[in-house]
Amino acid sequence: MPTMTIVSCKIMQDEILWILENDPAINEIIVVDNENIGEFVEKLDRTNIIYKTLPLSNISPVCEAEKGSKYTVLIYLMELGLHRNPKKLKKNVYETVETLIPYSSGILLFYGLCGNVLGNVEKDFAVSSLSCPVHILKDNKDRIVDDCIGATVGGVDNYLKILKKVSDAGTYLFTPMYSKGWKELLDINGRLHGDPDQALQMMKKTHEMIGYKRVAKIDTGLAYTENFDDAIKEFAEIFDFEILELNGGDQKIFEDCYQQLKAKIKA
User: Fold this and answer.
1) pLDDT of residue 87
2) Which residues does 218 contact at the CB level (< 8 Å), separation at least 6?
3) Judgement on whether residues 133 and 10 belong to the same structural domain of the protein
4) Which helix (H) or strand (E) covers residue 107, if one does?
5) What is the enclosing helix (H) or strand (E) of 197?
6) What is the pLDDT of residues 50-100, one digit of tens each?
7) What CA–CA distance (Å, rounded) separates 244 from 264?
8) Mean pLDDT rounded to a whole number for the chain
9) Which residue in 85, 38, 30 sits closest to 59, CA to CA?
10) pLDDT for the residue 194
11) What is d(CA 140, CA 156) in angstroms, rounded to the nearest whole number?
């Protein structure tokens, strides 16, 4: 049986959890051990999902694994801060895909265009990974989603509707994981010589100059990340933002893309 590998930014770990919890066909879950998995494995434990954490060096290449009868899902989480540098993000994603091809029957990237650097990833790996298709998140019109928010809200069309709805003022769009990871994403602790308070004050001034006034809470329907409401309120209070509630988040794109690649590699 094959091995499905999911390579994902930490920001989409809840969507991975939902996939794992709702696919009874999975026989084995392996999380590649690295510095990005701490919160993810805590959630796996709370959800009572059985898994292994292993260094990549201890995982069998797929040619050996396929001799058995297990359908395995291999999870590789990547650093959230890569989004601050799109060129570095692309380099790291491509290098990770190349590294994981020998361990995978198929690789699904839980990423979008992400600054327009991952738009050609399927084409770029089409020849070098003939026995291991590489897919990225797409909507129902076969368009690569813009980013994790675009995937969460159902694709390009719905994303544009939301952006139009909030176009009157600068608005942060927060999913549960964004509400917990924004300081890491924006490198608050590393900015201005490691002075978080000074970095936050600088952000406030920047918001005033460019017109940011609110944070939108996107209800994904998932409850793996705790204290979503409190995290949103904390962010709003720091920057004197209003809170806007948005519905429409779901797992359809993640489920559809996962099932499409699963069908291909199990055919």
Assistant:
1) 93
2) 149, 152, 153, 173, 174, 175, 246, 248, 249
3) yes
4) strand 106-110
5) helix 196-210
6) 999 999 999 988 766 555 678 999 999 999 888 888 999 999 999 999 999
7) 40
8) 92
9) 30
10) 66
11) 9
Give the closest residue to 22 by CA, choosing from 267, 262, 246, 229.
262
On whether both 196 and 101 belong to a single domain, the answer is no
CATH number for the domain harbouring residue 121: 3.40.50
Asked if residues 111 and 9 have their Cβ atoms less than 8 Å apart, the reply is yes
248, pLDDT greater than 80: no
DSSP string, 221-254: S--SSS-HHHHHHHHHHHHT-EEEEE----SHHH
Q: Which residues contact 129 (CB under 8 A, 6 or more apart)?
A: 97, 101, 107
Indicate whether 231 and 255 sit together in one domain: no
Domain residues for the domain of 22 are 3-148+251-266
Q: Judge if 117 and 205 occupy the same domain.
A: no
Distance CA 166, CA 168 (A): 6
Say if residue 134 is in the same domain as residue 233.
Answer: no
- The answer on 218 and 258 residing in a single domain is no
**How many structural domains does the chain have?**
2
- Three-state secondary-structure class, residue 80: helix
Question: Is the distance from CB of 39 to CB of 10 less than 8 angstroms?
Answer: yes
| Residue position matching structure tokens 């879950």 | 29
**Is pTM, for the whole model, over 0.85?**
yes
At residue 233, the pLDDT reads: 96
Cα gap 27→157, rounded to integer Å: 36
CB < 8 Å & 24+ apart, contacts of 17-21: 17/43, 17/44, 17/47, 17/49, 17/222, 17/224, 18/222, 18/224, 18/251, 18/254, 19/73, 19/251, 19/254, 19/255, 19/258, 20/44, 20/49, 20/51, 20/73, 21/47, 21/49
The DSSP code for 138 is: B
Burial class (CB in 10 A: 0-12, 13-18, 19+), 226: exposed
